[in-house]
Amino acid sequence: MSGEEEAPTQQQHQQPGQERTPDEPPPSPPAAAPSSSSSSPAAEEEPLSCRALVLTGYGGYDKVKLQVKTQRRARLQAGEVLVRVKACGLNFAELMGRQGLYEPLPAPPVTMGMEGSGVVEAVGEDVEDRRVGDRVIAMSRFGMFQEVVVVPADRTFPMPEQMSFEEGAAIPINYLTAYMMLFEMANVRPGKSVLVHMAAGGVGIAATQLCQTVPDVTVFGTASASKHETIAQGGVTHPIDYRTKDYVEEIRKISPKGVDIVLDPLGGSDTQKGFNLLKPLGTLIVFGAANCVTGQKKSLLAMMKTWYNQLSLNTMKLMQTNKAVCGFHLGYMAEDQLIDRAMRELLELYRQGKIKPRIDSCYHFEEVADAMRRMHDRHNIGKVILLPEPKKPGENVEKTEAADNKTKEEAATEEVKAEKD
Amino acid sequence: MSGEEEAPTQQQHQQPGQERTPDEPPPSPPAAAPSSSSSSPAAEEEPLSCRALVLTGYGGYDKVKLQVKTQRRARLQAGEVLVRVKACGLNFAELMGRQGLYEPLPAPPVTMGMEGSGVVEAVGEDVEDRRVGDRVIAMSRFGMFQEVVVVPADRTFPMPEQMSFEEGAAIPINYLTAYMMLFEMANVRPGKSVLVHMAAGGVGIAATQLCQTVPDVTVFGTASASKHETIAQGGVTHPIDYRTKDYVEEIRKISPKGVDIVLDPLGGSDTQKGFNLLKPLGTLIVFGAANCVTGQKKSLLAMMKTWYNQLSLNTMKLMQTNKAVCGFHLGYMAEDQLIDRAMRELLELYRQGKIKPRIDSCYHFEEVADAMRRMHDRHNIGKVILLPEPKKPGENVEKTEAADNKTKEEAATEEVKAEKD
């Protein structure tokens, strides 16, 4: 990481029309994305000033700019709601998107962000089940990193009373991904074993919690040693330090026959290893290619290595081993019904106290580079949250104990970085 | 089919030592196979005469010979039982094995057969849960096509009282395959849709019946038109004549988004089609390569075509489509615990009247060529059974109404064949 340029995020002012808004159909795939203005010609009076995190080009952290868009407040279309965003979830997809490695994100300039929570400020015609003042979770293919968004009402989900905005913003991507992989694709049942890579990450923690809802499920979780205590408390049966040990060997020592389910966000040679670790009737689910992301900018070498080591499959091999290989990516899921059902189920599990997002840290929009760096360097335990509200003078970044659990080495690395900023 | 040599099966007499017995470890993979004699040196008095169907080399129907082995009756090993076989199930694997296309079958000479039913005639030491006189289903990797077999007691399953020997012999391979695919791999749930190829075959009928145990499951089943009435009665929601229609088009007409589960015993280009037919979160399970078997003997062209058209997968494609691809083959399943649990469940479903094997026809051992031809030509609706007992003079082959449902064309083809025999 050292040696790369890092520019602090500067607040910029931007006029409408300079940036791709979701109203222009993105080149691929069809998006149900929010907009801070509607294209309706019948605009209303009050002008709308809106801070937004805009990807201005592919590259390092400096490509994500905080811009202030000043737009006329447009009338909502039928079925839409206007949400004042209180918290957004940062995802690995945005780190990849910044490097030009995330296909569902339209080309820059584009407002990033796939999930958030906030308060309904206005409702369009034909919206019956949302009211002004409702606290909601909102989802979108992109465009959530802004103070005010317009989304279809059916892409919002009322938040349980006891849920904080930070928790609400941490639910959709991580928990839907974990839920659909474990219960729609892999069919976790009592007695099964699951390998969760990056067990301290957002999906990792969600998957671990969801595994706890089924009796007698063994979770092998990889994470650096400093995070083991936390993930063990969270339900990981066997934490494994992937930095100092071969996780395949460690798992074989405990379970010589391997595991029933592997959740693989890494790609490349780890997919091969995961496939080999499967028991008969076992399921490997690939849901990312984190191995592609090494430095701050797109690395052709890392991509080639990941592609070269990609699992190549033929059905004969699958038959001879009785194994299943699946791919999952919420960004390519256009099935709203499936998503709705899973969200309802997840919010019910939250109400019952069976799941609870772990917030690693919260960063204001102007600190997005720090937020992305924290995630890139895998310092987070749980979800990294972005707050649209400007940072108050003298306010420090909220951190959980995760930050204090760092190894000395990690802390030293961060100090060096801090000096450079 | 015409133009190929067909030699009627001749009864041959064979002495011990001429044929591979399962006591010699087969070259691949380790087999839990029955033997008509044990290698124990402490042999008992009474000599044992045993009719067996032996594959004598790879090729056409004439390579399967009915032989009479005369062997000393050996003492059972601990944990073994001796079963007098009353009925055996014929499987597509044996048709492939005859052509040298089924790897789990050891090289000829070898007694074929993976499933049967009969009566326990003797039990070895340490066998506590089987008694002389018990009616049991028996499974093995090969060697079941003989009058008397020795198998480990734990590879036998007591038959429900109302179950016939023919039904018992029809259960293991077809129903375990269907059960494990639908419930272990694919997780069929209410509201799902399933494409069952060869819906009038053994696995097809088993899969259709098992789908009925879950509410509101739609079954698309391919079969030739003459079988549609029967499979519709058996639970196929939409029978499709794959001979005269494009099944992909037919399914898209009814369900434009495709299906949730495809069970694919065909391989080659049908696997590609099946993959494309899957809805998001859908599962394709390949469990055979019937497209490899065209004529009576191994066809390099058919094999090459099947291999060439084999689905080649990369995990990126799976992620972008949110799909799962699995392989299943009972012949490669060494997990006895999983098989035991599934068998117990299946026998319970039989007791409850929820599943019932459909016996297409029964052939005596000496008629094995006719039995294989019936299956090869896809004339069967349900299971083809082999009977070890010699055919009585004047006895006709038992046929179900399936035989009478033949199209005129099919009947004409058979007449031509009968004249040639």
From TrEMBL, chains A, B:
Signal peptide: none annotated. InterPro entries: ADH-like_N (IPR013154), ER (IPR020843), GroES-like_sf (IPR011032), NAD(P)-bd_dom_sf (IPR036291), SV-ATPase_mito-regulator (IPR052100). The keyword Cytoplasm does not apply. Residues 389-421 have a biased composition (Basic and acidic residues). Coiled coil: none annotated. Residues 1-46, 387-421 are annotated as: Disordered. One of its GO terms (molecular function) is oxidoreductase activity. This is Synaptic vesicle membrane protein VAT-1-like. It comes from Scophthalmus maximus.
